[in-house]
Amino acid sequence: MTNTQLPTAANPGPFGHQQRKNFLFPENYTQFNHGSFGTFPKVVQDDMRAWQDRVEQNPDVWMRRDLYVALDDIRTQLAEFVNCDKDELALVTNTTVGINTVLRSLPFVPGDRILVLSTGYVSVNQTVRYICDTHQDVKVIEVPVTFPISDKDLLVKVEDALKAHQELKDGSRIKLGIVDWISSVPSVVHPVKELVELLHSYGALVYVDGAHSIGQVPVDLSYLRPDFYITNCHKWLFSVRGSALLYVAKRHQHLIHPTSITGDYTSGFEKEFGWAGTQDYSSLMSILSALKFRKQFGEDAIISYSHSLALEGGKAMAKILGTHCLTPEDHQVGNMVNVALPIKDLKHPKANFKDLMEILIEKYNVFTPAFRHGDHFYTRISAQIYLELEDFIRLANIWKEVVDDLNASS
């Protein structure tokens, strides 16, 4: 398939509503929030259950031998997918585990500083605060970010923070910077390559939180060259929940250990992360069938369609709602788009995530997260291969009704 033939919102090709048959959604439900927890095709679920059956046929053979063969196969295929050495990869259950794995392994000493963005995922920034709370004179430097902001201005903000710290000359150092590839709420694609290079130029290690990256944007770790990288396979890659990929550059592997220490402690990176104790490993095994499912369409086709649908769907919703999309630059949008909601009174008692969620679920049987950012409320919508433009239009009309009712009660 050439670039001129890649599917778009206007020309969906194999995608759109015809893909619903490959997923488990009931007829009366449309999934607009793939970004939070993902979902997986029926064939991936079938494969996961086949792995579970295989384990029960002979648990000893599986746990003591076959598991490691399967894990090696997964790492081999993922290494090709993200362009790195398989020996730099470990499989964990989710991004939160991956973040804790690295942060709780690194030897922080008094005077160390950790740089984060204010828009970083809450669990990540809270883990950083935990590290600061439990280590003497380890502090966080939080760069305040409000979108929309250009890539250039974001880089300037980060460099200003680096320069300001450098000018303190107090003996402290920024040991680690943590940056999103694609932030969660609001969802914005960051200039991740430039951020990595900038932080490295100031002597900091870089951890890329790529929770939303694999399956949503092309990933090339040999080009990106972070020190650490984590991504959820169960979000955009179509594997079962509880499957994530952790990258640790070889030069740091002697420092990094799993959150649960097993009998393989000090046996090397691969062995330490190969056995996490007795548990159900079938979610990790599902990565193999997820990759196979994607190959029948091609990565470029999946990414092209979902990105195009996010852009066109966001514009259509903004027009109906009489508002705007948060990020005016197309390259800052992946498969998730943030559309402003025309809520007049931002202090309205029901203008909050929980109450709006209840209204959407109970009255309309749909859900998209709503949140305040800057001077507006936004909702984040996830485009995916089983959606079409008309779904976004229906969602916009639902949100219009919800917001009209809210404004009428102000």
Give an overview in words.
There is one protein chain. With 410 residues, the protein is an alpha/beta fold. It folds into two domains: 3-30 and 297-408, Aspartate Aminotransferase, domain 1, CATH 3.90.1150.10; 50-293, Aspartate Aminotransferase, domain 2 (3-Layer(aba) Sandwich). The chain is built from 14 helices and ten strands. A seven-stranded mixed β-sheet has the order 1-7-6-5-4-2-3, with helices on both faces. A three-stranded antiparallel β-sheet has the order 8-10-9. α3 (59-82) packs across α11. It is globular and about 60 Å long. 42% of the residues are buried. The model has no long low-confidence stretch (mean pLDDT 97).
Number of strands: 10
Query: What number of structural domains do the residues give?
Result: 2
Determine the N-to-C terminus distance: 52 Å
Strand content: 5-15%
Instruction: Tell me roughly what share of residues is in helical segments.
Output: 40-55%
Radius of gyration: 22 Å
Task: Detail the poorly predicted runs.
Answer: none
Biggest sheet: strand arrangement: 1-7-6-5-4-2-3
* CATH class division of the largest domain: Alpha Beta
Structural class: alpha/beta
What is the overall shape? globular
CATH topology of the largest domain: Aspartate Aminotransferase, domain 2
Main sheet characteristics:
7 strands, mixed
Number of helices: 14
Please trace the helix and strand order, writing H or E for each element.
HHHEHEHEHEHEHEHEHHHEHEEH
Looking at this structure, what is the CATH superfamily of the largest domain?
Answer: Type I PLP-dependent aspartate aminotransferase-like (Major domain)
CATH architecture of the largest domain: 3-Layer(aba) Sandwich
Mean pLDDT across every amino acid position: 97
